[in-house]
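Usage

Read records sequentially. Each one opens with the input sequence:
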Amino acid sequence: MLPIYDRKRSPVRPKEYRDYLIEALKSTPGVQAVSVTESGRYPYALTVTSGGREFKWQVIGQLANGAKHDTPTAPVTAGPPAYTAAPADGAPDAWLAGVIGAAEPADTERLEVWSTRKKQTDPGLTVFFRNGERAFVRLL
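and closes with the structure output:
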């Protein structure tokens, strides 16, 4: 299990969550490289090379209703979310959700993989935190 994010700040802060994902990916079998990808158009992005394929992801955060950016969110923890491991050569968002689930984040309530929706959208996933916040991780 990876350490929980800095509790002085919300877990949904995109930079902190991106850094958390980088740490989770570094310890994932089959991942050859992980790096921060800071470009003006896509802030809070990372690049992952796995199974000979390269993926660029961007993290976007959403605060809980009534929360403010300048106020830290109280930590909420429980058991890790349910997840299904997916092969690295399958849907990229399902694979990334499996990586997050395997890290056993206690503050994560559930993971929603976009490619499994009835009306399939671009690959990505929504991370629902127990404190009402969300992180959207989209494939660029």
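Summary fields computed downstream for this record:
- The longest strand covers residues 53-62.
- Strands lie at 31-37, 45-50, 53-62, 108-113, 124-129, 134-139.
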